[in-house]
Amino acid sequence: MSDAKNMAQSQSYAADSIDSIQRASSAQQKDTPVAVVSSAAEDDTSVVPADKVDERKNGFLAYFKTKEFYITLALGQLLAIANTSTSTFTTLLGEEGWAIPTFQTLLNYIVLTCIFTPYTIYRYGFKGWLRVIYTDGWKYIILAFCDVEGNFFIVLAYQYTTMLSAQLINFWAIVVVVVLSFLFLKVRYHITQIAGIVICIGGMGVLIASDHITGTNGGNVSSGHQLKGDLFALLGASFYGLTNTAEEYFVSKKPVYEVLGQLSLYGCIIDGVQSAIFERSNYHTSVWDGKVGGYLTGFTLCLSLFYCLAPLMFRLSSAAFFNISLLTMNFWGVCIGIKVFHYKIHWMYPIAFVLIIVGQLIYYLGRKALAEARKPWLGRNQENGVTGLFTAKQKIQHVVPAGADPHEHDPERPPAANTSAA
Asked: What family does the database annotate (predicted)?
């Protein structure tokens, strides 16, 4: 009898224990979503490192308080002068009766290949370099093709039109860049950026008006040749717009030496084949002397400098600002042309130059500290981008240095052993 009573008590205790366990489990399940929601809320409200960098400079003129702003302006004018110099040498070559546009740019690709391809192999190792060709080669081939054809048509345009007229291609290149960046890179332009672009284009309009008033366009060119040259310049501008937008994307995700090495390597091949097919007769009819050699050397050095600096500009700013910076080429072209081609400068030219510079200043009104260096396609913290000179990711890592790598390399392609020790 007592055994039955004890057994009943044991069963009662077991039932109570099971009920208490079930209640505790139910309470835990009810509490778990709250904890998850609370944790998620904390993650949503946590400060993004990139935002912390942006907030270091406050106000409507925040970007004007950074050294990167002044580097961007200076770099833009240096690029404009370098590009104007290449235009000047191209015009001088045309006056000497030398007309092999594809071969002219081939020398630039050879110089860049000799510099950047060996360095890429050194950084990645030969197998790593072959892996770049295997995985991304087709992308760089398209980039190189657009670049080669852009150079080809603009150099060809200088043979049929004037230097000042051909330099107006920058207007159409801006349109191409803005449209492509908006559609494919998801770039959204602020009202001040649009206003800055419009003012810069207005400055270009003043240049055109001054040429119309004075009746000079930088040379004596027949209307038929002028039209052909302008069409070539327009086609070249379209290729330039494609190249600039694509190159901005590449240098934000890849090291500069990889992009320039691959671009120049495939550029050599495409340019060389095109020159051999279409310009064989020009090699015999063109003039070859010391003066032509000097002009070719000057052209190649200036264009190589331009190619080396352009990726840094794309990282600091954007393809759009890169192109509006080049609008001052017309002013620098006239300054050079006064001495070299005996141009006469009109009083409206300085006004146009000031308008373009003012437009560039307005372009960056209201921008934060990182400005356009913070690319929208790289993620909130630029985690999908490369760490390198003038990248936003490098500045962000100074704020949150944990795990930062001081060396520039592709995050999807770790550096070879010969750089890991550093």
From this structure: Belongs to the SLC35F solute transporter family.
Q: What angle do the packed helices 169-184 and 191-214 form, to 10 degrees?
A: 160
pLDDT at res. 44? 43
Q: Which of 372, 338, 367, 332 is nearest to 352 (CA)?
A: 332
Q: Which of the two residues, 223 and 312, has the higher pLDDT score?
A: 312
Which token pair is 208?
């055109």
pTM: 0.80
Closest CA to 79 of 319, 325, 297: 325
Name 196's Cβ contacts closer than 8 Å, sequence gap at least 6.
324, 359, 360, 361, 362, 363, 364, 365
Q: Which of 124-133, 371-380, 396-405, 409-418 has the lowest mean pLDDT?
A: 409-418
Collapsed DSSP state (helix, strand, coil) of residue 267: helix
The reply to whether 412 falls in a domain is no
Q: Is residue 394 included in any domain, yes or no? A: no
Number of structural domains found in the chain? 1
> Each residue of 7-53: pLDDT tens digit?
445 555 544 555 554 554 444 444 444 344 344 433 444 557 888 88
Nearest by Cα to 362 from 28, 114, 64, 36: 64
The alpha-carbon radius of gyration of the chain (Å, integer) is 30
Residue 55 lies in a domain: no
Domain that holds residue 306: 61-377
Kindly give, in sequence order, each residue whose CB lies less than 8 Å from that of residue 378, ignoring residues fewer than 6 positions away. 252, 253, 384, 385, 392, 393
* Residue type (1 letter), 151: N
Do the domain assignments include residue 16?
Answer: no
